[in-house]
Design a protein that fits this description.
Largest sheet: 2 strands, parallel
Strand order of the largest sheet: 1-2
Shape: globular
Structural class: mainly alpha
Order of helices and strands: HHEHHHEH
């Protein structure tokens, strides 16, 4: 259950929408993304329709699960709620790590008011305990206007 009261996590928000065939592979850009794997943040910016989601989706599906936990989160206007945002962040990684973020979800679903700092700190601590590199894709991040989410990131 989502902290915002929504009954379910929409699973299609947690996977890239990349077609398997008929795509142009942009090897140079995929290499640049792969080379940036150790970076804290990578921002891809281009006008609508330039293939940002497709490119990152291709890169995302190429990540090695033996060395990297990865999560995908397709954002929309409804994700400006801090509880919903962190619920989906946790859900994205739970697809790879079954019990990831259980404490965060229990507190959010119990209606415990957690500060943005507490939420982001708990999330970072969960990631640090995994022992593998973690890559999170936040697709359409520009749709978020909640300052608390910006501070948390």
């Amino acid at each position: 259950m989502l902290a915002s009261g929504d009954p379910v996590v929409i699973q299609t928000k947690l996977v890239p929408s990349v077609r398997e065939s008929g795509l142009v592979t942009r090897d140079r850009l995929l290499t640049k993304l792969s080379d940036s794997i150790e970076s804290t943040v990578v921002i891809i910016k281009a006008p609508a329709g330039y293939g940002k989601t497709t490119l990152v989706g291709q890169w995302f599906t190429s990540l090695n699960p033996d060395t990297n936990y990865s999560g995908w989160y397709s954002l929309d206007d409804a994700d400006n709620n801090i509880g919903r945002f962190f619920t989906y962040l946790v859900a994205a990684l739970r697809l790879k790590v079954q019990d990831f973020g259980t404490t965060i979800l229990v507190q959010l679903n119990a209606g415990v008011h957690l500060s943005t700092g507490s939420l982001s700190g708990a999330f970072i601590n969960e990631i640090a305990s995994l022992g593998k590199r973690v890559s999170l894709v936040l697709d359409d991040f520009h749709l978020l206007h909640n300052n608390d989410i910006g501070k948390a990131m």
